[in-house]
């Protein structure tokens, strides 16, 4: 169900790794000017009168930064509601971004680590965010190997290596 809510009741989230370059922002403005809002902004109802953006931050920016669009929508934004816990909203944001082919590497790496800290396995991250295991591991390496792999279960071969080359005294 698409609702029209006041712009001031819609706020950005803290985790979106997406970035849109200036030419694409101009194109997004042109698109909304010429075609209207063809996709609503996906939000989470904070239950205090405000909504946090899950997907659509840049569509939100266009309505705020371009007077012609702000006048056209009378200070309102088209939104849908996704009422899920934070980790699932983060996953939804990433799925939306990846489906469009845009996301930043360093912020993506931080998100993978946040989900890992939340108890998500590498396999769940792969499944929920549409990634290969190699990509998850590469993103973990960006944020630091020690933390990324401290709960990882390794094969016994390392124990054998230590016994052979570093015998206990």
Rounded Rg: 21 Å
Shape: elongated
At the fold tier of CATH, the topology name of the largest domain is Conserved hypothetical protein from pyrococcus furiosus pfu- 392566-001, ParB domain
Mean pLDDT: 86
Number of helices: 9
What percentage of the residues does DSSP assign to strands (E)?
5-15%
Low-confidence stretches: none
Class by alpha and beta content: alpha/beta
Written account of the structure:
The protein is α/β, with parallel strands linked by helices and 169 residues long. The protein folds into two domains: 1-85, Conserved hypothetical protein from pyrococcus furiosus pfu- 392566-001, ParB domain (Alpha-Beta Complex), CATH 3.90.1530.10; 104-169, no CATH class. The protein has nine helices and five strands; from the N terminus they run ββαββααβαααααα. It has helices spanning 22-35, 57-65, 67-73, 86-100, 105-117, 122-129, 133-143, 145-149, 157-165, and strands spanning 3-6, 10-11, 41-45, 51-55, 76-81. The chain has a five-stranded mixed beta sheet with strand order 1-5-3-4-2. β3 (41-45) and β4 (51-55) form a beta hairpin. α2 crosses α3 (67-73) and α5 crosses α7 (133-143). The longest helix has 15 residues, at 86-100. The chain starts with a strand and ends with a helix.
Task: Name its key features.
single chain, about 170 residues, alpha/beta, Conserved hypothetical protein from pyrococcus furiosus pfu- 392566-001, ParB domain, 5-stranded mixed sheet, 9 helices, 5 strands, about 55% helix, elongated
